[in-house]
Structures are given as C-alpha cells and as structure tokens.
Design a protein that fits this description.
Structural class of chain A: alpha/beta
Number of helices of chain B: 18
Largest sheet of chain B: none
Helix content of chain A: 25-40%
Structural class of chain B: mainly alpha
Radius of gyration of chain A: 19 Å
Order of helices and strands of chain A: EHEEHEEHEHHHEHEHEEHEE
Number of helices of chain A: 9
Strand content of chain A: 15-25%
Number of strands of chain B: 0
CATH architecture of chain B: Orthogonal Bundle
Shape of chain B: globular
Number of domains of chain B: 1
Strand order of the largest sheet of chain A: 6-7-8-3-9-10
Strand content of chain B: under 5%
CATH superfamily of chain B: ABC transporter involved in vitamin B12 uptake, BtuC
CATH topology of chain B: ABC transporter involved in vitamin B12 uptake, BtuC
Number of strands of chain A: 12
Distance between the termini of chain A: 42 Å
Largest sheet of chain A: 6 strands, mixed
Oligomer: heterodimer
CATH class of chain B: Mainly Alpha
Helix content of chain B: over 70%
Order of helices and strands of chain B: HHHHHHHHHHHHHHHHHH
Distance between the termini of chain B: 38 Å
C-alpha cells in the first residue's frame, strides 16, 4: 500500500448516466507520489480537464474514490483543502477588473491569521514576473499577463506549505514560446524548493518530455497509457494523436518530437 | 487638481461622512415649516433628556415638527438609503455583474408582491390577529417575498451562461413581470382602503417615518454590517469565478446563502416600510466603483454612505418640490436611475455585444 500523495481508485472520466458495464470497462486507478512531475496529454475533448478536476477534488467522483494525503475527498473541508493544493485555471477571467495585487492576495483568503500577506504577495509577484503589474486592473492585461498573475496567485497560496500539490490546466495555450518556457521554469523552481508535486494538462508534447517525469495519456474518456517520460513514449504518442512522429536528440541529450514530413491521413 | 484627487481617494469615507452631515443639516431646515435654532435647542426636552424648567413652557411647533416628522424621516432616509446601497453592492458582488440591483432583478417587486398578497388576500386572516403581531406581519411577508425571488435568481443564474449580463437581467425582467402581475391581481381584488395601501408600495415613500422604524433599521444595519464585514474578502474571491473561488478555499455555497439572506433582509425590509425604491442599489455601488475601484472591502461601507446621501437628496426633493403635496420618492429615484442605467448599459455595451455574438466569457 503506497503512501503516495494522491490516489485515484477505480474512477471514470464520464458524466451522466451510463451503463454499469461501460463504467467498469473505462475505470482506472492512478497514484501520484510526492514531488512528482506528471503531465496529462491527449487530443481535445479526451477528458484531460475532467481528470484534472477529479485530481483537484473539486467534485466528488461519480465512481470510485479519490484519496489525498490519506483522506478521502468527503473528509476535506474547502478551506483546509486550499492549504494543500492549488489549481491554475485554463481561463482566468476576473470580474470587475480587480487589481492584480488583490487577486494574488486572494490566494490566501482562506487563512484566518495572515500577518505576512503583503510580503508574500510581493515575493510571489516577483517570482512570476508580474511585480511591475501589481497596481494594474486585471481587465487591462493581456492573456499572458493574466496567466502569470494566476501563477503568482498559486505561488502565494502555496508559499508557506511543503509536500503539497499544484495542478495546472492548459496554462500555456495562446502564450508565446518565451513565456511558455519562463512559466514552466518558475513553476519548476518554486515546486522544487517546496517539494510540491505538479500535475499539468499540456498540449505541447515537447514541454511534457522536457519538464515532466511521467506522462498520463488520455484518449476518448479513458486512460490510454501511464508511462515515464522518455523515448518509449513516442510510439504511444503516434497512436494517441494518429500521427507519424520523428524524434531527435538535441546536443544536451534531451528528446524532441516533431510530426513526420509525410502527409497524415485524416481519421 | 491631482493632489485633490489623491486626497479624495485616500480617505473617501471621511469625505462622505462630512458631506452626509452637511446635507442632513441642510435637509432638516428644508420644508414647509421653518425651523429655527430655538427649535433645535428644544429637542432634548422632547427626547425626555432634560426636564421642563417651567411647566407652562411648551416647546414650539417647530421643534415638534423637527422631532416627530423631520428628524425621523431624515434618519430613515439615511438608513434606508444605506440599506439599499449595501444590498446593491452585495447583489453585484454575488452575481459578478455591475448591472445587477435588487430593484432591477425583481427582489423589491417580490417583496411588494408578498406584502400586497398579505394585505388583500389574507385580509380576513390578519384581522383576527393581535395588533402587535399584525404590525410585524407585513415586514415579515416582504422579507419572505424578497428571499423567494433571491433564491430563484441564484438558482437561475447558476445554469444560465455564467457571467452573462443579459441573461441575468432578462431573468430580472421575468421576475418583475411576474410580481407585477400578482400585484395587479391584488389591485383588482382590493377594496378602497386596501387599494390606497397598495399604491403606496409601488411608488415608494418615506412619509410615514417613525422612530420605531429608525431604531429597527439602525439595528439591522449595524448587525448586517458587522456580520458582512468578515465576508468582504470572500466576496472579492467570488470575482474569480465559482470554481477558482472554491479552490482558494471559499465555501461558495454557504457564502451565497448568507449574501442572499442579507440582500433579502435589507431590500425586503426597505420595501416593507417604504415601498419600492429602485436604482439606489445600482447607482451607489457604481459611483463607488468609479471612485475607489471594485474592492469589496471598501465598496461595502462606501456604498452605504453613498446610498444614504442619494436617498436623502431624493427624499428632500420629493417632499419640498411640490409643497405642501409630496411626490413619492420612488418616482425621483426612477427618474434619475432610468437614464443612469441606460448610460451604464452603454458603457458595458462591449461586453454585451460580445455575448450576443456567442463569445463565452
């Protein structure tokens, strides 16, 4: 019996009424260990965000159980859970154009006594490279700036805890390459210092291969594969996306995957 | 000029309190009966605070007017205005919508509707009750009516497109229409005396102000303010969206229920004692947002002060423009509020246009 961070037991990714038989055939189990880096990949609509919602204990599981730090989802209060896991949303629109420093401070709203909140907000903003935006309104920010503000909010939320969980939902969509790399690096540094585990839903296979140790592939609402992040995963990518892929090694021995030059057949 | 603006922005509460005190003093002097300094000085006697030195010396008519009519009315307009401002700020925070307001969304109409039903349809039942119970029946009915509409709105807002301004306002139109239809039915079935009572509710008036009501509203506002003060930061978290607010540790279900109950209490009781007074809950938070921004920690107290000033000014106009007759104050707030609302719609048209083109936010 592993004493991991997060255990999903016999869960399914579907919603709504389905037959019991369908449920059991699509059910799977998944464990996340402390300090692990896990990337969730898959085609659009496969259920990646649903899996992330399950892992963040947002909703009680329709089937099976989700155990986080030894307690099932029903045993966690909303406030206490926020001290142990943080979620970065895919679309972080903020109503009313609240100011950035306020949004970052909201990461710590569930703490009763918080004397250092101003210092933590400033430090988190600096780590996420938004300290020059602290007094701007959120509705005047670009998509990339807003993503970094939410990253700062996550940093503030998990600033003074260790061995916990950070979940990211496709944060790099619609960001330029430089920003994508910088965000992943800030996140990696932050999580490494505090021994947090990171689970991220990504589109870019190469980001996943470079920055994450383990890959969970999701296709059509079921777990397709759960593999370490190395060149063994490439044939699985080909089956996942229905593409021919070429893999290359760069000078520093990291793996890069590209679509092959042959035309792909539409399914 | 910018130094003045910085000074204004830094301590807005104190500025507003100063304006409020000044306008209150002015309003006390305005009216059919002229009030002099002697009348003000005679007040403590009327409050029973100092005995009569000379039993034959009766306070002048002016001080009676001041004590029995003008002061309670003035204080009630401040307190009801503050309640409406506060309930407007809470409604906007709850629905994440700068155009939300208890009047527009049908909460006030629901309260008036419940009061109308109590007056007309339950007339025989209530006649048998003791007078002390009957006095509190209408405010209770108004509260229940407001609460029903609030819960219905919250329910609907959940499965409408999240954050959609138009969908929420359309629901408000439906609520107003339904409540209006029921009030119409009650009007049709009412006898003359009931009819006179009913028309008071739909127009809004502070004419019957009593010290008891002043005490009640003061208590309500104090309790409400201290209770809601602790929820201000959680209310800010709602602006992040339901999912994110939950993920940062705010129990949004419990928070929503509390906010709804307080909106229903504040708006419902305002209707119960003063009839439907719309738009104060829309204008006050909007002005505060323009001035100091949307942070609920500043919004709630400042919306109360701005709401108080707005209703004070409106009521002073209402009772002094057509002396000795009185225009119901609800007409004034609607006359100003209607065009103001159109202006707001114009300002947020970019967001509304985005919705009608099918973009999700």
């Amino acid at each position: 019996m592993s004493t991991g961070l997060l255990q999903l037991q016999d869960v399914v990714l579907g919603h709504g009424a389905r037959s019991q038989a369908q449920h059991t055939s699509k059910s799977f189990s998944l464990n996340v260990s402390p300090r692990e880096r896990l990337a969730i990949l898959g085609p659009s609509g496969a259920g990646k965000s649903t899996l992330l919602h399950l892992m963040s204990l947002d909703l009680p599981p329709a089937m099976g159980s989700v155990t986080f730090k030894g307690r099932v989802s029903a045993d966690w209060s909303v406030a206490e859970l926020s001290h142990h896991r943080a979620v970065m949303p895919q679309n972080g629109q903020v109503a009313f154009g609240l100011e950035v420093h306020l949004v970052i401070a909201l990461g710590r709203v569930a703490r009763a006594q918080d004397p250092c909140v101003a210092a933590i907000v400033a430090a988190a903003a600096q780590l996420a490279c938004v300290d020059h935006l602290l007094w701007r309104r959120c509705d005047t920010l670009s998509g990339g700036e807003l993503a970094r503000v939410h990253l700062a909010r996550i940093f503030a939320q998990m600033w003074d805890v260790r061995d916990s969980l950070i979940l990211i939902d496709e944060p790099l969509a619609a960001l330029d390459l430089g920003l994508q790399v910088r965000i992943l690096q800030s996140l990696d540094t932050f999580a490494a210092e505090r021994h947090h585990a990171v689970v991220a839903v990504l589109h870019d296979v190469n980001h996943a291969l470079k920055a994450f140790d383990r890959l969970v592939l999701v296709k059509e609402g079921r777990l397709f594969a759960d593999v370490p992040s190395n060149d063994q995963a490439v044939p699985l990518f080909e089956r996942l996306y229905g593409l021919r892929l070429e893999s290359l090694r760069t000078a520093d021995r990291s793996l890069v995957v590209l679509p092959a030059s042959t035309r792909c057949q539409c399914p | 000029m910018s130094r003045l603006r910085t000074a204004l922005r830094a301590k807005p509460g104190w500025w507003l309190v100063a304006v409020l005190v000044f306008l209150s003093g002015l309003a006390a002097q305005i009216g059919a009966m002229p009030i002099g300094v002697a009348d003000w000085l005679a007040l403590p006697k009327l409050f029973g605070l100092s005995g009569f030195d000379d039993p034959t010396q009766v306070p002048a008519a002016g001080s009676h007017v001041l004590f029995n009519l003008r002061l309670p009315r003035l204080l009630l307009s401040l307190l009801v205005g503050a309640s409406l401002g506060l309930s407007g700020a809470l409604t906007q925070g709850l629905f994440r919508n700068p155009l939300a307001e208890p009047g527009l969304l049908g909460v006030s109409a629901g309260a008036a509707c419940a009061a109308a039903i109590t007056i007309v349809l339950l007339g025989e039942v209530t006649a048998t009750m003791a007078a002390s119970v009957r006095v509190w029946l209408l405010p209770f009915a108004a509260f229940v009516g407001a609460l029903t509409v609030c819960f219905a709105l919250d329910h609907m807002a959940r499965w409408l497109a999240p954050g959609s301004i138009s969908a929420l306002l359309l629901t408000g139109i439906a609520m107003n229409a339904l409540a209006g239809a029921l009030i119409g039915l009650c009007t049709y079935l009412a006898d003359d005396e009931q009819l006179r009572n009913l028309s008071f509710w739909t127009l809004g008036s502070l004419a019957g102000a009593q010290w008891l009501w002043v005490g009640l509203f003061a208590t309500l506002l104090t309790l409400g303010y201290f209770r809601l003060t602790r929820l201000r930061q959680s209310l800010n978290a709602l602006a992040l969206g339901d999912a994110t607010a939950q993920q940062v540790g705010v129990d949004i279900h419990s928070l929503r229920k509390q906010i709804i109950v307080w909106v229903a209490l504040l708006a419902g009781l305002a209707v119960a004692f003063c009839g439907m007074i719309s738009f104060v809950g829309l204008i006050a938070p909007h002005l505060v947002r323009l001035w100091v921004g949307p942070d609920q920690r500043r919004m709630l107290p400042l919306a109360m002060l701005v709401g108080a000033i707005l209703l004070l000014v409106a009521d002073t106009f209402a009772r002094s423009i057509a002396v000795p007759a009185e225009i119901p104050v609800g007409i004034f707030t609607a006359l100003v509020g209607g065009p103001f609302f159109l202006l707001l719609v114009r300002q947020t048209r970019g967001r509304i246009r985005g919705e009608t083109r099918g973009q999700t936010r």
